[in-house]
């Protein structure tokens, strides 16, 4: 191995295992940015005192390999970095993380009139690359009130700025770029005139926007064909002492779009709210709107008559996923939504019980507790995707005499909600009856589109087989069971060996299972009996009319070369939840693969959660598996 690459290899191991805390306590050998230009693909530390790989951020940027094969982090230790930093479009999948916005500062002082450089060259930090994250930093332009002087110039796509401060005066932040999507979360932005301007689609979440002079906050230049421009959600508008005449925005170009939602507006916001920059064409084309705002400056009664007050029913249009989603382009390196997600907990045992009790007053929710005869291993991490950890639980009998058959349990919730805890009672009873029962967490549609969930569950199968000895599992006897949306997912996982469903893995165990139990889960999305619409589209990334090939690829009944194993279909009274079953039955019968069907009449959809069906479901399920195994 050549010395330079051995050197890089050792530093990679050192940095990945160390992280930021190590860098603060232990010196790291400095690197030569010129010699390593475009070669580095491991985490880096920047420190002005020489305790990192580089003393400047620009040196670190220069050293990083273009179009990285996997994400890295540049940790920036406390200090005021007086440098003009440019991140080219070839730099992707990097997180730049400071210690805190108060202590880690990137600072420069260029301005438009200086050597006639013009507005767009005055930046302190210019970001042209995509899939980049910035955390715990201050970016400031120190030129003062001398005209246009940009702190941040951002034009890349899928950019995230979290817990950052942007300090300047006129034109502090150029959030621009045709097709650019940018997220600002928990940030502080200050300036005087048009201090948030440009053509990007940008979502400002829980940000403080501080006006230092009587002037304008935004100057959007949204292209006519773009649905969203600037959206401020749950923000706070403040002002310096003596500032009392501030407009929410004016249009730098026609068709500008800016919306404030659930935002606190101080008394410095003028009653008219918006200004047209003296152009009649702008009045006819711009879209300026507010919704559910509060504070002394939020009264909309005297707003400019060419602006809008939105109906709360329109709120979903301005939520983060609706604003920042792009067709087929939402996934980061790990398959997660690049702009993050909010966990949907609407599907749970309590909510389901309250809903179903209205039509089935006799039901009782089943909530079992594990007894002393069982061993329980909770929240075992089976997959790491960047900072995201996916977990599963293991329920098993204590001290089994021989390895036991296993069953993975996949919860439902419309592919967007639910939790592995909903499968807990099933797991406890199955463990009591001699199975290694494993409820599995997987990524839901608010977090990641299909096929992420399929890949997650397949990885869970590999992981539990890899740890078979630890849990007393017979890895040659593994079944998978799912309920509702989880049943569709479990069936697809058990039947498919398509590369798109297998995903990336370092585990050598197979994701194959020996049996499938489908509890009221659809088997074909596009089918006369199927009623799956928006929830399926949210998971699959579009409606059938947009992506018919994906809807078919995710339908177990439509797999061209399915892996057929014994199956048990346990259904409620509703036909929509077994759409496509007859297609699979025919395939299983033709291949002489055993299968069973049982329908509970006059039952709610999630019958497995309640008495009087819980114990019968367990009896049917274990009877089937015992016959197979």
From TrEMBL:
The keyword Cytoplasm does not apply. It comes from the Bacteria. Its EC number is 3.1.1.11. It comes from Algoriphagus jejuensis. Coiled coil: none annotated. Belongs to the pectinesterase family. Residues 392-571 form the BD-FAE-like domain. This is Pectinesterase. InterPro entries: AB_hydrolase_fold, BD-FAE-like_dom, Pectin_lyas_fold, Pectin_lyase_fold/virulence, Pectinesterase_Asp_AS, Pectinesterase_cat. Residues 43-318 form the Pectinesterase catalytic domain. The lineage of its organism: Bacteria, Pseudomonadati, Bacteroidota, Cytophagia, Cytophagales. SUPFAM superfamilies: alpha/beta-Hydrolases (SSF53474), Pectin lyase-like (SSF51126). Pathway: Glycan metabolism; pectin degradation; 2-dehydro-3-deoxy-D-gluconate from pectin: step 1/5. It catalyses: [(1->4)-alpha-D-galacturonosyl methyl ester](n) + n H2O = [(1->4)-alpha-D-galacturonosyl](n) + n methanol + n H(+). Residues 1-23 form the signal peptide. Pfam families: BD-FAE, Pectinesterase. The active site is at 194.
